[in-house]
Amino acid sequence: MHSKPIVSKFGGSSLSDAEQIRKVIEIIRKKPDRRYIVVSAPGKRAGTDDEKITDLLIGCHVLHEASESFEVEFNKVAERFREIVKDLGLGLDIESLLGDIRQAITDGASRDHVASRGEFLNAQIVAEALGYEFVDAKDLVRFHEDGRFDETNTFVRISRFSFKCRKAVIPGYYGSLPDSSIKTFDRGGSDTTGAVVAHGVGADLYENWSDTPVRMADPRIIKEAKVIRFMTHGELLELSDGGAKVFHRDAITPALELGIPIRILNTNDPDDEGTLVMKERGEGERHPYSITGLSGKRFIVVTVGKRGMNQEVGFMSKVLATMAEFGINVQHFPGSNNTVSMVIEKDTVDMHALALALESVRIEHRPDMIARDDNIGVITVVGQGMVSAPGVLATLTNVLSANGINIRMLNQGALELMITVGVDAERMEDAIRAIYEAFVKK
Ligand code: ASP
User: Fold this and answer.
1) How far apart, in whole angstroms, are the C-alpha atoms of residue 164 and residue 133?
2) Ligand 1 atom nearest 191 alpha carbon
3) How much distance in Å is there from the Cα of 12 to the middle of ligand 1?
4) From atom 2 of ligand 1, which residue's Cα is the shortest distance away?
5) CA-nearest residue, atom 6 of ligand 1
6) How far does CA 141 lie from the centroid of its chain?
7) Which domains occur in the chain, in start order?
8) Which of 118, 180, 236, 272 is the most buried (most CB within 10 A)?
9) pLDDT of residue 9
10) What is the pLDDT of residues 25-52, one digit of tens each?
11) Ligand 1 pocket: which residues have CB below 6 Å?
12) 14 and 266 Cβ atoms separated by less than 8 Å
């Protein structure tokens, strides 16, 4: 009988050098159900200002494309791996593996191929150190020809593979296209690999090991922000969309759809219970505050106004279709009867495409006005505890007004799971501190 496995994904900081990898091996050995291990490439070593292996590899590719020498960058990668293999006393032929990668870069391998090699090497190292099988993600994680993730094919492959292979280390972050070439997820995509492996093997639990506990607010803004012990997939998704950097948002959906619990844990404090993310919160799993957490992100807000817009069938869908044609993702759109604001993430938007999209909206759909503000900080306040709890919004608006922070936008969905508040970007951190104190210190 096959028992239900645990999938454990370890991030770059958990695998940054031999000492960290030893901690990981010890953690895995403590629970025999930890049978499918997904690894990132080595990240920054604690207390150093060195670079992530993935960044160095992408750097090698960029240099080669510009017909410049990538030797210096590549040697940094090679040294990190040589040191790890030597310190762990492994018999792996790292020189030949590194030689293959150097050759592939020289031969013009794609950006995704080169970027993925950190995970490819690291998984072989961890597999050998553990005595687990190494299984290349290119044979399990598949993408369609147009680059979209192929969920069905991936599930079929992983479920079949898990039936034959009881213990394996799988590189995170990448898979392959139908022509077998390598394709990566977005940066930080090993979280997604972990989630799809958890789905495919029918895991009981998806463990996600990193080096930072999940706190109610960004610790760079509130140093002592409390650790969240329980939350729902929905809350984690909203917090991540709102700017929290704990977990890749694409990795939440597979777990959410299947209700697979996620436990976020800390490799440097392995006995800490971490944060349990469940489909629903059970008895005794209550977060002690009415808000679970809050995050903040900078946005561009474009307000489109048209008299009678609320009576005109399809006006907004036409505007959104135009935005989509230029590849502009509108995160949400609070509005009034005659205006709608489109909230667009500032850090990722293509400014040129946005300008073209807005000009097309103006010419093609003839709104009465379009106003654009590039300087809005949107705070997402999330919490199941807000449902049917009178006074949450009052506390929030009162504390902002007491701190002299003007509310530019305010939105609460009918599910009452989250409130978004837009303020001038320069006041965003002040607002986060004020809201946190209002709810947590009470
Ligand atoms: N190594 C990749 C990155 O740095 C993927 C990951 O770590 O999740 O983005």
Assistant:
1) 11
2) 8
3) 7
4) 188
5) 188
6) 18
7) 6-211 (3.40.1160.10), 293-440 (3.30.2130.10)
8) 118
9) 98
10) 999 999 999 999 999 999 999 888 889 9
11) 11-12, 40-41, 52, 54, 118, 172-173, 187-190
12) no
